[in-house]
Each structure stands twice: as structure tokens, then as C-alpha cells.
TrEMBL record:
Residues 3-58 form the HTH deoR-type domain. It comes from the Bacteria. Keywords: DNA-binding, Transcription, Transcription regulation. This is DeoR/GlpR transcriptional regulator. The keyword Transferase does not apply. The keyword DNA repair does not apply. GO terms for molecular function: DNA binding; DNA-binding transcription factor activity.
Length: 253
């Protein structure tokens, strides 16, 4: 079992159990206590879990996953404008990957303006929309995440690794105050990392509601993106921080 799979197992277990000892978590993950202690240390550093008196539990200060139906309406008009900015980065003949989520779905709605596109996605709604156009579509399979209409598992990651894409458009469940974007599960974190790794250019789609609203797992710094499409207004210091070492170019809408 790889580290992110163990972390996922630990988090899923703690969602339904108030707390557990490291020894029992080691048995659940079929790993040594030393290995689990390393995983626990990382999850504590990410402020995902807490450890007290030899037992670990979820950090209850972390917000619960926001329902899809609510996210779909949140800042919808802003997301449409962000999608118009994103479409300007897509060229005829591109191979692109669209991350699951309500920001990228707005891109899907207007992809019919491009020719000879290939789209890879793990979002069932995006695949359904794009399949109505003259576009070659690949859906990354695996376990379907209930009520979120996307695949999210080790099989999803393995499938995505088969591709090399021109551009990856990535969503986020939150961004920390020091500009790390987040995911709300270990699987989603690894999926986003994989999408970024297989792309020539990666673009973050993040409306202003996502900033200073961290989720469970930190994924990467905003400096790792080529472009950041957002309606957030940054200070000069924030821009300098994000664009340090040729970091992400901010495309405001």
C-alpha cells in the first residue's frame, strides 16, 4: 500500500470513528507502526488530524465537504467569466485534461468553439457535456465518488498517467494563506498532482471564495502553475510571492 493510500485509509476510518491508536491503524493498513507514525506525522503537519495520548482523531476545525449542488451555484457567473478566460488558452488540436468540479464544468460548456480537441476528465458531468460536441473524449475510470459525479481512486490515477496533455485545468477545494492549493481527500490530491505532472502547462481555476479557505490536504504551491485564473485581487506583495521563481501568471477576470 502506497503512502497516499494509507493516508486515505486512515482519514476514511477516522471519519466514522472518533479516534484510534497507532497500533490499530497499523493493523488496519497492514503496515508497521513505524510506517504509520510517519504517515501520522505528515497528516498532523497538514493539520488534518490531531494526536493526543497515543490516539489520533480528525481535526474537527476542518470544514466538511461542501455539497455539489451548493458548489454548482456558488459564484456561478464568475466561473463562467473565468471559463471565457480559460478558453483563450486553448488552441485547436490541443489535448487537454479537465479536473472534476464546478469551475472546469463551465469550460466544458464552451469547448464547442474549438476544433480537433481531445479531452480527458474524471468528471462524469464534463464527459457528458463534451460528448455532445465533435470532440474526442476519454473518461478516467475507477471508483465513483457518491454525489460528486466524479471518479476518485487509484485506478483513476493509473488511467490518467497513460496520457501526455497540452494543458491541464485544475480546480481546488481551498487555498491556504501562504498560497498552497488543497484537495479534500488523499485520492483527489494525488489525482491533481498527476494531472499537473502529465501536462505541458497547468492552469488553476480558483474564484475568490477559495482563498484563505484551506481544505484537508495541501497539494502544491500556486508557484507551480503556469497560469492562475481568478477574480481575486492580490496585493503587490502577494503577486511577488506567487510569481517568485517564474511562478504562476495571474489572469484576473
Amino acid at each position: 500500500m502506497e503512502s497516499f493510500e494509507r493516508e486515505r485509509t486512515i482519514l476514511e476510518y477516522l471519519k466514522t470513528n472518533n479516534s484510534e491508536s497507532i497500533e490499530n491503524l497499523a493493523k488496519i493498513c497492514n503496515s508497521s507502526s513505524m510506517t504509520i507514525r510517519r504517515d501520522i506525522k505528515r497528516l498532523i503537519e497538514l493539520k488534518t488530524i490531531e494526536q493526543r495520548h497515543g490516539f489520533v482523531s480528525l481535526n474537527r476545525d476542518i470544514s466538511l465537504l461542501v455539497p455539489y449542488a451548493y458548489r454548482e451555484t456558488l459564484n456561478k457567473e464568475v466561473k463562467k467569466i473565468m471559463a471565457l478566460k480559460a478558453i483563450q488558452l486553448i488552441e485547436d488540436g490541443d489535448v487537454i485534461i479537465l479536473d472534476a468540479g464546478t469551475s472546469c464544468i463551465e469550460i466544458a460548456y464552451i469547448l464547442n468553439s474549438k476544433k480537433n480537441l481531445t479531452v480527458i476528465t474524471n468528471d462524469l458531468n464534463i464527459a457528458n457535456i463534451v460528448s455532445n460536441y465533435d470532440i474526442e473524449v476519454y473518461i478516467a475510470g475507477g471508483k465513483i465518488e457518491n454525489k460528486n459525479y466524479c471518479s476518485s481512486s487509484i485506478d483513476t490515477i493509473k488511467y490518467i498517467k497513460k496520457f501526455r496533455v497540452s494543458k491541464a485545468f485544475i480546480g481546488t477545494s481551498g487555498i491556504t494563506s501562504n498560497f498552497y492549493f488543497c484537495a479534500n481527500s488523499c485520492d483527489k490530491s494525488e489525482i491533481k498532482k498527476t494531472m499537473i505532472n502529465i501536462s505541458n502547462k497547468c492552469i488553476l481555476m480558483a474564484d475568490d471564495s477559495k482563498f484563505n479557505s484551506p481544505s484537508i490536504i495541501k497539494v502544491k504551491s500556486l508557484q507551480d502553475f503556469d497560469y492562475i485564473i481568478t477574480n481575486k485581487i492580490f496585493s503587490n506583495d502577494e503577486i511577488n510571492h506567487i510569481q517568485k521563481n517564474n511562478g504562476g501568471k495571474i489572469l484576473n477576470v
